[in-house]
Specification:
It is a single chain. 40% of the residues lie in helices and 14% in strands. The protein has 404 residues and is of the alpha/beta class. It starts with 24 loop residues before the first strand and ends with a helix. 45% of the residues are buried. Pathway: Isoprenoid biosynthesis; isopentenyl diphosphate biosynthesis via DXP pathway; isopentenyl diphosphate from 1-deoxy-D-xylulose 5-phosphate: step 1/6. Catalyzes the NADPH-dependent rearrangement and reduction of 1-deoxy-D-xylulose-5-phosphate (DXP) to 2-C-methyl-D-erythritol 4-phosphate (MEP). Residues 165-248 form the 1-deoxy-D-xylulose 5-phosphate reductoisomerase C-terminal domain.
């Protein structure tokens, strides 16, 4: 497999390609009501001449779905939670817009002939099958669902063809951009930057009393609640390391997390000759989102926060504290163990993360619950999506027993 498209002139909406000269990129945004989904829609609306938003999905946010569908004239929408079939608000969808319900309808959307690119902004392991089927049927996949690659990378990555999987996470987009025109064989290390989250430099004693409201105050990024809590525990950075091993074919020990509080360097790659390349820019997710849509071209920036580099006097770097923030260490352990352990770890984290947001466990309990679940669930080689669904269910059940 390879993420990289050797034909740098090929892309939807590019006048350099006769095939798509008069055709807009037809996009499906899955998870359209979340942070990544709404920012993707914003980018698409800024480039109506290049992009046609054909389909949208939400889990149960029907109000947001109707508003988005009317804004972009979507032709198809999916509500995954079937208990919302009779929501009156859905009557306000555009007259020409079809509306389907359930998980199978989501898979049907990604396989439609009138979809060129799928933006998967679904949170958690739920995006696993979407990514698998999108790649299997030849769609371009703009992936903002790191959990899927962590859980099912053994099954998903063999399906990737050049130019068909574009990472959306700011760090992986940065690495992807730094590697354009380079050979993975000459890559020696990846420096994965991390803001440190809202609790940087706190002690474990101090973390014992923090609340979900405290954890949701991220210093630089505006994100969904699940990923914001993961950023506070540093679990998100652990997941990103595991994602990077899948995407860029580098061992975990050669991917280094570095605390960079200013969040202006989004990641760096180091080559065998000692050269390091970095991608810098504002903390605006619309930039990596847009690059996933425009790749391999670049469009006018969607951001209004471009930095004046003459005024920036200080960029700092530090090692992460994996003793205080043990979730990062647990994620790396799961990745090195391999097999179904990343699935077990991720499932336990999703349970504990949600419980903390709902006030049912403490911040430090997240680490404890993940560790206990990893210790007490049976490990096996990855064989199929069906097996991973079963492992995910079993790990969630196990994690629930450790909630205090």
């Amino acid at each position: 497999m390879s993420l990289f498209n050797t034909n740098s002139s090929q892309q939807f909406g590019s006048s350099s390609s006769d095939e798509y000269e008069h055709k807009r990129l037809r996009v499906a945004i899955l998870g359209s009501s979340g942070s990544i989904g709404t920012q993707t829609l914003d980018v698409c609306l800024q480039h109506r001449d290049k992009i046609d938003v054909v389909a949208l999905s939400v889990y149960n946010s029907c109000d947001a779905l109707v508003k988005a569908a009317r804004t972009c004239d979507a032709q198809h929408v999916v509500v995954v939670d079937e208990t919302h079939k009779n929501d009156a608000i859905l009557d306000n969808l555009p007259a020409t817009c079809s509306c389907e319900f359930g998980s199978q309808a989501l898979l049907d959307i990604v396989q439609r002939d009138d979809i060129d690119l799928v933006v998967c902004a679904i949170v958690g392991a739920a995006g696993m099958e979407v990514g698998y089927h999108a790649l299997k049927c030849g769609k371009t996949l703009a992936y903002a669902n790191k959990e899927s690659l962590v859980v099912a990378g053994d099954l998903i990555m063999p399906l990737v063809k050049p130019g068909k999987l574009i990472p959306v996470d700011s760090e992986h987009s940065a690495i992807f951009q730094c590697l354009q025109g380079e050979s993975l064989r000459e890559l020696s290390d990846i420096w994965l930057t991390c803001s440190g989250g809202p609790f940087y430099a706190k002690t474990r004693d101090e973390l014992g009393s923090v609340t979900a409201a405290d954890a949701l105050r991220h210093p630089t990024w505006k994100m969904g609640s699940k990923i914001t809590i993961d950023s506070a525990t540093l679990m998100n950075k652990g997941l990103e390391v595991l994602e990077a091993t899948r995407l860029f074919e580098l061992p975990i020990d050669d991917i280094h997390v570095v605390i960079h509080r200013q969040s202006m360097i989004h990641s760096m790659v180091q080559f065998k000759d000692g050269t390091t390349k970095a991608q810098l820019g504002p903390s605006d997710m619309r930039i990596p989102i847009q690059y996933a849509l425009s790749y391999p071209n670049r469009w006018d920036t969607p951001s209004t926060k471009l930095p004046d580099w003459r005024t920036i006097s200080h960029l700092s770097f530090a090692a992460p504290d994996t003793t205080t923030f043990g979730c990062l260490k647990l994620a790396l352990q799961a990745g090195k163990t391999g097999g179904t352990m990343p699935c077990i770890m991720n499932a336990a984290n999703e349970v504990a993360n949600k419980a903390f947001r709902e006030g049912r466990c403490s911040f430090l309990d997240i680490e404890r619950i993940v560790a206990q679940t990893m210790q007490n669930c049976e490990l096996a080689p990855v064989e199929s999506l069906e097996q991973l669904r079963e492992v995910d269910t079993q790990a969630r059940t196990c994690a629930q027993t450790y909630l205090s």
